[in-house]
Structure formats: C-alpha cells, structure tokens
Design a protein that fits this description.
Layout: E1 6-13, H1 19-25, H2 30-38, E2 43-51, E3 54-61, H3 64-72, E4 84-86, H4 88-100, H5 111-125, H6 133-151, H7 161-172, E5 179-183, H8 187-197, E6 203-207, H9 211-219, E7 224-228, H10 233-238, E8 242-245, E9 265-269, E10 285-288, H11 294-303, H12 305-358, H13 365-395, H14 399-409, H15 433-442
Parallel strand pairs: 5-6, 5-8, 6-7, 8-9, 9-10
Antiparallel strand pairs: 1-3, 1-4, 2-3
Helix pairs in contact: 4-6, 4-12, 5-6, 6-12, 7-8, 12-13, 12-14
C-alpha cells in the first residue's frame, strides 16, 4: 500500500488537565499503548508520549475516520474538558509546539526533546513508526525543537521542573543550611538535585531503588551528599526540611508512614503517577504537586515571551513547508501509481503487438526499438497533462482528484480518501485502469 496516511492525535496535558486527569490517562505504559493502537484495523503507524505533565498519542491511517476512532477510544476515564483531539494539520502543528517547548509547563524546557526522542525510539522498536507520515512529522518536530533552542532564547536560564520545584521550596521554606531529600535518581531527580546543589541547602540525600544510580547523582553534586535505599526513606525524611520526589513508580513512594516523624517538612511531588500521597503526614507536612508550580512557571513564561513569539513564527514557516512536502508526496504517489499502471498496460500491449508482427516475419532489432519507442512516446504524451493536473490538484488541496487517480491506477489502494483535514471526498465509480488507457488510446 502506498503510504498516504492521515494523522489523528489526542492530548491530556497540564494545559487543560489536572495531575489527577493526567494520571487517569496513563492507564498503560507508552510502548504498550503503541502496540495496542497498531493492533487496531487500519492503523499504519502509532506513537505515544507520557511525561509528568502530559499523556499524548497519535496514529496514522489511510482512513481519517479510522484514525479519529482509534484516538477517541483512549482515556475513557478522563473528564471531557481535559481531553484535546487533533486532526491531521493540528497534530503536525502541536507536535512542533511540544518539541519547541511551547506546550511545556516550564516554557522552553529542554527535557521534552529527549523525552520525544526516547518515545519515538520505543515506538519504532515495536513497529509504530515505519518511515510514513507520522514518522516524518516527528522528525520535523524534533528538528524544529532543536532550531528553536539554537536560534532563540526560548530556553534561556535552562529552567526545568526540578529547578522550578526548588524555587517554589525557597519561597515557602528557608533553604539556608537546610537538609534536602531527593527521592528518585532518574532525569527529573537529577535535575532537582542539581537545582538544590545551586541553592543554599547544606546537605542533600539521594534515595533510589538502585543504589548505584543514586551514587551517580550524588557524585554530580558539590554540596555534601549521601545516598540511601528506599528502605531507609522514613529515617531520611525525618531529618529533611525539603523532600522532592520524582521516581516514576506506579504507586506513591512517600506515604503517611514515610513522613510520620518528619515534623515541619515540605514535600514536592514531581512524579506521574503521584509519588507522594496528597495528604501525607499531619498538618506539619505540606504537600505540593505540579499544579502548584504554575506561579513559578508563569513568571518564566513572561520572561521568555519575546523568544516564544519568534518560535511561533518559526513553527508557522515550518508548518507551511511540511504541508507543501505532504502535498508533493501525495501528488507523487498518484503520479507514480499512474505511470506504473500505464507501464503494465504498455508492456502487455507491446508483447501482443510484437507477437502479431512476428507472425508475418522476424523483426530486426531496429524495428523492435522503433515499436518500443513509439509506445514510450505515446505513454509519455498521454500522461503529461494528467501529471500536471495531479500536481496542481495537490497544490490546491483538491484531494478528490488525487483520490480518484489513486483508485484508478493503484490496484492496492482500497481506502477512502486520506485528506489532511480529515474531510471525506467522494469515491465515484472508477473503471479499471486498463479500460481507461484503452479509451485514451482510442481517442
């Protein structure tokens, strides 16, 4: 099947959803979700990304309705107002905005680029991306993300969720000579530890299930640092003034019993699903989550407003360029199908003509070449005008014409029209390509 897919997407993110909504949308891991989507009839490509502040999935199919139905079935337990659906063009633009950091809680943060790359790699490993339109869209998005950071100040200051958490802690607690506990030694835990290292805290404890990974984070810090296993979490929490949790575990790591003896402590939860029980401990324990970081991140957004405008303009230009590429590819697909069909008919007719001529005597090589050249010339002249028309149709978004050509000339094309905006064009009654060519020959 010639790849002429249409993309549909769905998003549950901090823009419209709460931490609880995002948690409800992440019912299975991203790789399993990609495999489940690929198992649906008609889905050619699939991609999913899950972070602490977003859960998104995209599919590509030849039938726009099939693509929409696939993503519409996701996140059944999420409230209606928290879900955003994207058609083909909206998906293309949104992926670029995500990669550029415009859709991040912390405007312009760098971590999303790595997260997109890792999610694309995981999807590719299970067959979710195969060089089709969705694969192309993700590649373009990542290129735009890199350009945005190289050519603008969108990530100036390198503010991350980890550093935003430390800034929030500094507003609520005196960090001078304080003791901090970082639960989790993954990327987010490392960022939080580095932000604490740059703050006035005097001691940092890193807790992780894998001790060696915790040691790796601690070795990266200049502040006095030690490491513990999760089994010793309660003892460490009782001595900490600030706890920042980001483990990625499926169940909360910091529970009531973890902070039962903590006294006055600020717990900031960066995990998704939650790492800290919302009402953990008694009244002396304050629990904050990603939703509470909005004040800090809004200020960063204001500081980066000018850079964001430049990135928006960059995305507008790249979006138009990507649509033009899409249109050219659709036209080229139809033109290729037309020429391949004509070539099959030409070869069949040549064999029959040669056989009839040879029945009256052997042909010389020169005579054979003359007949073959005549056939080539006829095909080229007959298809010159349709080729021009198809390319003009693509440029003018005339997908009904493109679809009709695919139905006429591609024997494997069996789906309804795949249009960028999801609109359906009429099927129309199409005669077999051989009959069409016969009619053209008769004319």
């Amino acid at each position: 099947m010639i790849n002429t897919g249409v993309i549909a997407g769905v998003s549950v993110s901090h823009t419209n959803a709460s931490v609880g909504d995002i948690e409800s949308a992440q019912t299975v891991d991203a790789t399993t979700l990609v495999s489940d989507l690929l198992a649906r009839e008609g889905i050619e490509e699939a991609f999913a990304i899950q972070t602490c502040n977003r859960a998104e999935a995209y599919v590509a199919a030849d039938d726009a309705a099939v693509a929409r139905a696939a993503v519409a079935a996701l996140a059944p337990d999420v409230r209606e107002g928290a879900i955003v659906y994207f058609n083909h063009e909206a998906s293309l633009r949104h992926l670029m905005r995500v990669a550029a950091g415009l859709e991040s809680l912390v405007l312009g943060e760098d971590q999303i680029l790595g997260q997109l790359h890792d999610a694309a790699t995981a999807a590719r490993e299970v067959g979710g991306l195969s060089g089709g339109v969705l694969d192309d869209a993700l590649s373009k998005a990542q290129q735009v993300g890199k350009r945005a950071r190289a050519e603008t100040a969108i990530n100036e200051g390198s503010l991350s969720l980890g550093s935003a958490a430390v800034e929030l802690a500094a507003r609520e607690t005196d960090l001078a000579d304080a003791s901090a506990l970082v639960v989790g030694a993954g990327e987010m835990g490392l960022l939080a530890a580095r932000a604490l290292d740059a703050s006035p805290v005097s001691r940092i404890v890193v807790a992780n299930r894998t001790h060696r990974t915790a040691e790796h984070v601690a070795a990266d810090l200049d502040t006095e640092s030690t490491t513990i296993s999760l089994e010793d979490l309660s003892a460490a929490a009782s001595r900490a003034d600030v706890v920042i949790a980001a483990t990625g575990a499926t169940e909360p790591t910091v529970r009531d019993e973890t902070v039962a003896d903590a006294g006055e402590t600020l717990c900031i939860d960066l995990g998704q699903p939650r790492d800290v029980v919302p009402d953990a401990g008694d009244e002396s324990v304050a629990v904050r989550d990603i939703d509470d970081l909005e004040t800090v991140t809004d200020e960063a957004r204001e500081r980066r407003a000018a850079a964001a405008k430049a990135v928006e303009e960059m995305i507008d230009a790249e979006f138009d360029r990507l649509l033009e590429e899409f249109k050219r590819k659709r036209a080229d697909d139809a033109v290729s199908a037309m020429y391949e069909s004509a070539e099959r008919t030409k070869q069949r007719e040549l064999r029959e003509a040669m056989a009839k001529l040879e029945a009256h005597g052997d042909l010389t090589d020169e005579q054979r070449e003359t007949v073959a050249a005549l056939a080539d010339s006829l095909v080229g002249q007959l298809l010159a005008a349709p080729t021009k028309s198809l390319r003009e149709a693509a440029a003018e978004d005339d997908w009904a014409t493109i679809h009709t050509a695919m139905k006429l000339f591609d024997p494997e094309f069996d789906g309804p029209p795949a249009t960028p905006d999801g609109a359906q064009s009429p099927d129309g009654g199409a005669e077999p390509p051989e009959r069409v060519l016969d009619q053209l020959s008769e004319d």
